[in-house]
Specification:
Length: 726
């Protein structure tokens, strides 16, 4: 474990430990000792990156107020040299600060620091802190925003490469600049059958991996950042094991660029978590259980999945959530707008399972396996209530049947057309979902559409002037879908469906969302119309911005604390939206804990104070989890758990799978002198952090989906407006 910061006023640290440990009392000494240091206010509208520059240098070497000069190692093709996730992050920073980006490539790693120090660039990306070894007096790094590791890549059909020793009889192709080169070079003298081939530094990743695929090279070693983007589209190659431990990623700036470094750190504090939400992972059930997250691909509908009052709802969501809980995982929802998009998200590793009322065998792909059926439903033709009921499929002659992109019934209709029935199938625009399609049918923009029988009550409860006209076929089984390679997940899901089908949980969910649905509030009619996560978004955004938090994380925490109830009181006496203990509220100057503005302001400020107690070198993601755990269980307890993690042989700088295990051990009861004792009652912090992470991930996807859908909805609104004038 890295040593905690020492440049903090001691009385303040002691106070914070007392506050976070108990949140139950406030002494006079504490009141006198507490000194709050707010995060620095926002810098001037335009960043003034430039500092004093040697007048002898060309003007082009001066830092610009209008551009951000980015240095990286590689070719001029930045997409091949820098992972997409990191490119997007630095470009987002530039955009938020109204800067253009200038990308400057160098061939050798050592040239990066030289160019930065001599003023030829403003920032170095694509590297870790080891880059500045020996010149730390001239270079500063931002907070560590992520990690990467070296991974061994081989053809997928290659056997018996599972550990370092298996490489000693192989041909390994690497650039000499790779951190793995010097390690392997040491083994050459002792392993005559190992062949270490130097690849030209100008070679691009795609070219190297293609040579592995063709058999020209046996093995190469690549950073995991790039593989996450490449492997899902290239199943012919695989990463077989990690060659190195994780290395922290950070950006480098000159020591005199303090404003730039501060603004980068503020930006990274706010944005690092949202970047992790979209990580690509091709993993089976055991790895999913390790990260404690099941990513469910679906689409929004009243019976399927929808958002209301800070929480996710729906039959599909509830039924698969129980499976996840049984496997000690939380559910993250990945929204799609069509069946094709669902398929792509699954195969690319952006999600783990599709749960979207799919008819059996509706995804024709050898790389996808369907589970056993968990429901049976017949497709039903839906029309206006002024329509006469249809007698048989011949009554479809000459009609126009609209299908939303997520509808699975196109192939069924095409089969009817092949039987000689002439009607038109209309594909609605991207972004027009089932509810919007039903609205258009009810207002005569389309003739008919199709729903699964299980959807009829749920969907038509929200619509007026529609009714079922005709059942097209016998009920068809509905299944979930997983990658064909995920054998353990498929087996576990099938066992779950066999056990839970028509059981208590299933029946309650089916009744609540499908057979006896209630009208939802207008604000939940369309997911793409959700502009607020909570009634207090604006207050949260203001305070989150001031203290460099992602506002959606604070909303997730607030829901976990109080379910958005400003009058909430816990059994321990914590009060208000952010559940402040009376002592903490008084120390933070809160006179009325039931006042949403005062409570949220104090809660976010307290989060900032706790975060500042952790060492700067921690990965930002883990610093966030440690901060949340401290808010719930106390800073001192988290500190003790980190020390215990180190003794247990775990990584004291990582929360999930490491310090959280130590926290659980601290809370485990034991017998002493005939009494049951615990070192602390802090096990709830593990669940607290995990639940907030899951809720936050869903909020991120929800808000991003909303933003993307707004443009489509403007078009839909114009269509409705034209219709109203008719």
């Amino acid at each position: 474990m890295r040593k905690c910061q020492t440049n903090v006023d001691l009385p303040k640290v002691l106070l914070l430990e007392v506050l976070s440990l108990t949140q139950r009392f406030l002494s006079t000494a504490i009141g006198l000792a507490l000194v709050f240091t707010p995060i620095s206010s926002s810098i001037a509208n335009e960043l003034q990156f430039s500092t004093e520059v040697d007048p002898g240098k060309p003007e082009s070497e001066s830092l610009s107020n209008e551009s951000l000069r980015i240095l990286y190692q590689g070719t001029n093709n930045v997409a091949q040299a820098i992972a997409k996730k990191e490119r997007a992050l630095v470009e987002q920073f530039a955009k938020e600060n109204q800067l253009t980006t200038e990308w400057h490539a160098v061939e050798e790693e050592w040239q990066l620091m030289s160019a930065l120090i001599n003023g030829h660039g403003d920032i170095v990306i694509g590297q870790g802190e080891s880059l500045a070894s020996g010149i730390t007096d001239q270079i500063k790094f931002t907070y560590s925003w992520g990690t990467t590791r070296q991974q061994v890549v081989v053809r997928t059909d290659t056997t018996q490469i599972e550990r370092l020793e298996d490489l000693f009889v192989r041909q390994i192709a690497l650039k000499k600049s790779s951190p793995s080169w010097s390690i392997l070079e040491k083994y050459l003298a002792e392993n005559s059958m190992m062949d270490l081939v130097a690849i030209p530094e100008s070679s691009e990743l795609v070219e190297i991996i293609m040579r592995v695929t063709s058999g020209e090279y046996d093995v190469t070693i690549v950073e995991s950042d790039y593989l996450g983007e490449y492997l899902p589209q290239h199943p012919e190659v695989s990463a077989v094991f990690d060659f190195s431990k994780e290395e922290l990623r950070a950006w480098a700036v000159r020591t005199d660029a303090e404003i730039l470094q501060n603004r980068l750190n503020e930006f990274l504090n706010k944005n690092h978590l949202s970047m992790i939400v979209t990580d690509v992972r091709l993993e089976d059930l055991p790895k999913m259980q390790e990260r404690k997250v099941l990513r469910v691909i679906t689409y929004q509908s009243p019976g399927n999945y929808f958002f209301n009052n800070g929480k996710m709802h729906g039959f599909e969501y509830g039924f698969i959530e129980k499976f996840a809980k049984l496997k000690k995982m939380n559910v993250d929802v990945v929204l799609a707008s069509s069946h094709e998009e669902m398929r792509e998200l699954l195969l690319s590793g952006d999600g783990d399972i599709i749960a979207a009322s799919l008819p059996e065998n509706s995804l024709h792909d050898e790389n996808i396996k369907m589970t056993i059926a968990y429901n049976y439903s017949a497709p039903v033709i839906i029309g206006r209530d002024t329509e006469k009921s249809l007698v048989d499929i011949r009554d479809l002659e000459g009609r126009r049947i609209a299908l939303a992109p997520e509808s699975p019934y196109r192939s069924l209709l095409e089969g009817i057309q092949q039987r000689g029935i002439d009607f038109e199938i209309i594909d609605t625009d991207e972004g027009v979902n089932v509810e919007e399609t039903l609205y258009r049918v009810s207002h005569a923009m389309h003739d008919l559409t199709i729903l699964g029988g299980h959807q009829v009550k749920a969907e038509l409860t929200q619509q007026y002037g529609l009714k079922p006209l005709f059942t097209l076929s016998e009920p068809v089984g509905q299944s979930w879908a997983v990658r064909a390679s995920d054998h353990k997940l498929l087996s576990a899901v099938n066992d779950y469906i066999k056990q839970e089908y028509r059981g208590d949980t299933y029946n309650v969910l089916y009744s609540k969302y499908l057979s006896r649905p209630k009208n939802r509030r207008a604000g939940t009619r369309l997911l793409t119309h959700v502009d607020k996560l909570s009634p207090y978004d604006e207050i949260v955004k203001k305070n989150a911005e001031q203290h460099s938090f992602d506002w959606r994380l604070i909303v997730a925490q607030m829901y976990q604390e109080s379910q958005f109830d400003p009058a909430a009181v816990s059994y321990a006496g914590a009060e208000g939206l952010m559940q402040l203990m009376p002592a903490t509220a008084r120390a933070l100057g809160v006179e009325d804990v039931n006042d949403p503005t005062l409570n949220i302001t104090a809660g976010v400020k307290y989060m900032s104070i706790l975060r500042d107690q952790f060492e700067q070198e921690l990965p930002l993601e883990d610093k966030t989890w440690f901060t949340l755990a401290s808010y719930n269980a106390g800073f001192t307890r988290v500190k003790k758990a980190r020390l215990l993690a180190e003794k247990m042989g775990l990584d004291s700088d990582r929360w999930f799978g490491n310090v959280e295990k130590a926290m659980l051990k601290l809370s485990k009861p034991y017998i002493q002198d005939g009494e049951v004792r615990r070192l602390c009652r802090c096990g709830q912090a593990v669940v607290y952090v995990q639940d907030i992470r899951s809720l936050y991930n869903n909020y991120v996807r929800l808000t991003e989906t909303t933003q993307l859908a707004r443009a489509d909805n403007k078009t839909n609104s114009r269509d409705r407006g034209r219709l109203a004038l008719l």
